[in-house]
Amino acid sequence: MAQTTNATSTAVAATADDSANKMFKRDALVTIEKQWQKDWEERHIFEVDMPEDDSVDPEELHEKYPKWLGTFPYPYMNGILHLGHAFSVSKIDFATGWERLKGKRALFPFGFHVTGMPIKAAADKIARELEMFGPDFVIPDEAEDLGDKVAEMSVDDSPAAGQNFRGKKTKATAKFGSHKHQFQVMQSQGMSNEQIAKFADAQYWLEYYPPIAIEDLKSMGCKIDWRRAFLTTDYNPYYDSFARWQFERLHEMGKI
């Protein structure tokens, strides 16, 4: 019996050591990662400014200081970034680094898409659900809706035996899950009911999600000049004035 106990203890200790060794490797990599990201931020190495050289004309300036600009389709800020964003942004980030290695002044700005109806519609849903269910979002007893429990299925029209069933998954379902109410989507992200109530104000979405996205992209080590970050509404007057200028100019030209 004692031998069995000792053998078990030895096995548990060995497993713990293996686990610790695995975590050590991971933790060492994270430490190195944070060290260099801190160094990059302190040295502002991804910030790109216009060259100041009055001795040459613009064409010669471009030859003397070759430049490159790349950007990423603005992610919509009605949620946190996901692996699809990470996969896509890794390509432009790699290209930015490659152009820097070739001696170009590579600029990678980043924008956040916050115009359109999705944010306003979601904010209105939260406002309605607060009225319906109260600040604690308590739903009155109701019959079980099997439609919320079972994935929507589609069947081949062919009556052949062994017919395949395929689940449908919309883009929204992939991003938010199959929750029936907007507050349930927010709860699935770990938010408290008190915090969820703030999302009844559409402006709060603009204040909440972009900073999280910035931290996630910094954690990826993206070569972004964060001085150039912007939102696509009058929340950012500079970007908004440019969009207004475009439409006013098109109107003057009779194009719209």
TrEMBL record:
Keywords: Aminoacyl-tRNA synthetase, ATP-binding, Ligase, Nucleotide-binding, Protein biosynthesis
Molecular function via GO: ATP binding; leucine-tRNA ligase activity
Annotated transmembrane regions: none
Enzyme class (EC, first level): ligase
Record carries keyword Ligase: yes
Cross-referenced Pfam families: tRNA-synt_1
Catalyzed chemical reaction(s): tRNA(Leu) + L-leucine + ATP = L-leucyl-tRNA(Leu) + AMP + diphosphate
InterPro entries, sorted: aa-tRNA-synth_I_CS, aa-tRNA-synth_Ia, Leu-tRNA-synth_Ia_arc/euk, Rossmann-like_a/b/a_fold
Protein name: leucine--tRNA ligase
Sequence ranges assigned to domain Aminoacyl-tRNA synthetase class Ia in this UniProt record: 36-125
Enzyme Commission no: 6.1.1.4
Family note: Belongs to the class-I aminoacyl-tRNA synthetase family.
Source organism of the structure: Coemansia spiralis
Biological process per Gene Ontology, one example term: leucyl-tRNA aminoacylation
